[in-house]
């Protein structure tokens, strides 16, 4: 019997997550390479004209054009689908391409969306600025309370859209109750799972219909490429989503897919170690600043809920240092080891000031409503030794009088 290279779903779906992240979806060529091959090709050739016609008609398996299929991208899509417990997945060129495709492919003028207010800045732009241009109305709510979702539903509500934990406010949304409500009302729930990834949190186990990713974050995990992915049923992914992607072209490059495949191999290791490092750094910061918002710490108002749906709290959290923008900026400027950077999910520790960077585009009242104040900082805790990180923060805090 041939060894399983990772292509047989009936086998790979039973592997544990760490195994799936390394092996599922692998397609070996005739050379038997151990690492996934990088197929830098835009097109494919056919043995005869009839084969070309059969492939376009969907009567013959095989690839036609890399906007639609590429073997390296296919390996990544299959791997993410298996890890997610989803029937299907399509990769995209960035997280925002994934979010845009996941929403626009199923919405039309007259539809209504309910979205949690605590969203990644560009996701809020989609709900607040892009969708309304096409006659799609959005109601933005505090997603922490199930009654708010219930009350926002109208006869036109088609989609619920949220992320948990949310960037950068670390609000946690109860996946089970929100996704069940959506199911009961025939509404499609779309969950942005970039923060936790499917290694720590699998929204489909709680009834989510569509799970979308910025794979730029923990999945690549080393700050190299932009990438995204959308997971769902075969009917959704190969139906409306594929139609949207095939004709608008937010396709992931084979090279970037290959980099993310390499990233996934170490996702389990990295995300657990970074979550542990984040807890250590968070405990230190709690002694020194006004407030730390890290779902993994008992001080987080939704700690129990977070820990009931996540295996670990992840590497990202926020802190309030008091003293407005002046002190927040001064603290960033005093760091020696930790970089000032708005990226997250990197193996390097990075810190930023959301009000003047990632959420600069959000109106001030909307920022304040969700707790993005001038004295808030966000940190991505990397893989460095947490003692070095704590020492760096210690001297930076002292230098601003904390
Ligand atoms: C980064 C991020 C995005 C956007 O992803 P890109 O890959 O940067 O386009 C969307 N949602 C969340 C929660 C993110 O952190």
TrEMBL record:
<keyword id="KW-0028">Amino-acid biosynthesis</keyword>
<dbReference type="InterPro" id="IPR015422">
    <property type="entry name" value="PyrdxlP-dep_Trfase_small"/>
</dbReference>
<keyword id="KW-0808">Transferase</keyword>
<dbReference type="GO" id="GO:0008483">
    <property type="term" value="F:transaminase activity"/>
</dbReference>
<keyword id="KW-0486">Methionine biosynthesis</keyword>
<comment type="function">
    <text>Catalyzes the formation of L-homocysteine from O-succinyl-L-homoserine (OSHS) and hydrogen sulfide.</text>
</comment>
<dbReference type="InterPro" id="IPR015421">
    <property type="entry name" value="PyrdxlP-dep_Trfase_major"/>
</dbReference>
<dbReference type="InterPro" id="IPR015424">
    <property type="entry name" value="PyrdxlP-dep_Trfase"/>
</dbReference>
<feature type="modified residue" description="N6-(pyridoxal phosphate)lysine">
    <location>
        <position position="217"/>
    </location>
</feature>
<comment type="subunit">
    <text>Homotetramer.</text>
</comment>
<dbReference type="InterPro" id="IPR000277">
    <property type="entry name" value="Cys/Met-Metab_PyrdxlP-dep_enz"/>
</dbReference>
<dbReference type="InterPro" id="IPR006234">
    <property type="entry name" value="O-succ-hSer_sulfhydrylase"/>
</dbReference>
<comment type="pathway">
    <text>Amino-acid biosynthesis; L-methionine biosynthesis via de novo pathway; L-homocysteine from O-succinyl-L-homoserine: step 1/1.</text>
</comment>
<protein>
    <recommendedName>
        <fullName>O-succinylhomoserine sulfhydrylase</fullName>
        <ecNumber>2.5.1.-</ecNumber>
    </recommendedName>
</protein>
<keyword id="KW-0032">Aminotransferase</keyword>
<comment type="similarity">
    <text>Belongs to the trans-sulfuration enzymes family. MetZ subfamily.</text>
</comment>
<dbReference type="Pfam" id="PF01053">
    <property type="entry name" value="Cys_Met_Meta_PP"/>
</dbReference>
<keyword id="KW-0663">Pyridoxal phosphate</keyword>
